[in-house]
Amino acid sequence: MSNWSESLTVAKFGGTSVANFEAMSRCARIILANPSIRLVVVSASAGITNLLVKLGNEKLSGNERESVLQQIRNIENAILNDLGRPKQLETTIELLLEQLAEVAAQPDLISSNKLKDELLSFGERMSSQLFAEVMNQVAENSVAVSFEGRQLLKTDSTFGKAEPQVELTKNQAEKLLNPLLQEKVVVTQGFIGSDNFDNTTTLGRGGSDYSAALFAEAVSAFALQIWTDVPGIYTTDPRITSQARPISEISFNEAAEMATFGAKILHPATLIPAIRSGSKV
Ligand code: ADP
Ligand code: ASP
Ligand code: MG
Questions:
Q1: Packing angle of the helix pair 62-82, 122-139 (nearest 10 deg)
Q2: CB environment 103-122: b (16+ within 10 A), e (fewer)
């Protein structure tokens, strides 16, 4: 048994943490400094999901749609350029961008929650590919691999706010993920899953926190780390008032309550797997 398996840690990095090459490199260094982190869950790069939501919800002209798609391409290509555009990754990202443009052009997009979830999935699908390559470049070695999280996180078919199927997700993790974790640091996507017909689903905005908790439960992780752009949970949003104070320790129930009443620091469902498994603070 490898020495990390006792302390297997899942780490989730949010949108600002994977906003660009620099930010991704900082995250890669955090991961490489802790051999217990074997599973990494990433959000879409900052701004991408908002742009995808715009494509899915607003009636845009052809030109307007093209302009939003171009903003998305610019963010992804900036990271790809900083990576030196490795051929295989370039092909993968270009293909994803083409598929994204096709979904964005579907005439019934606005009325179809199913198509919208397909559209929303592209942000995380691109950031995870780019992030795995950043890890390999920072490590100067092939230490990380990106893994298709939709086959892991099985959900019902409530597009836009899917409910996870916990046992199925656990089975998938045992079958598909555990062998890979022996070999590499696995980088997967938060927020997205698939239903029993393999349609893409999403857990709702901010859902990557919840995904990370579900994956941590599925692999019986020792710890889940949620990395973000503020240094902890505060009494209130530190971006709104300088009077916000850091909270050094908080129970799962209190944190869940804060999240339910709108503290964006955690998706409200994130604590459910921990409470279910009887974990301690
Ligand atoms: P990520 O993309 O990493 O998931 P989010 O933007 O979803 O990040 O959540 C982090 C943000 O949550 C912080 O930048 C902060 O403005 C906000 N926030 C709201 N309430 C709190 C709180 N009680 N403590 C800390 N941050 C909070
Ligand atoms: N990318 C998704 C969002 O912006 C999920 C997440 O970041 O947690 O809502
Ligand atoms: Mg968030």
A1: 10
A2: bbeeeebeeeebbbbbbbbb
Q: Compute the average pLDDT of residues 183-196.
A: 98
Substitution candidate for ligand 1 out of 230, 233, 243, 261 with most atoms within 8 A of CB = 230
Mutate to test the pocket of ligand 2, among 18, 205, 214, 229 (most ligand atoms within 8 A of CB): 205
Q: Are strands 192-194 and 200-202 parallel, antiparallel or unpaired?
A: antiparallel
Chain center to CA of 137:
21
pTM exceeding 0.85: yes
Among the residue ranges 17-31, 35-49, 216-230, 245-259, the one predicted with the least confidence is: 245-259
With a cut of 80, say whether residue 130 has pLDDT above it: yes
Q: State in Å: Cα 61 to ligand 3 middle.
A: 30
Distance 258 CA to ligand 3 centre (A): 14
- Which two three-digit tokens encode residue 210? 């919840």
Cα 221 to ligand 1 centroid, rounded to whole Å: 24
Q: Which ligand is nearest to the CA of 212?
A: 2
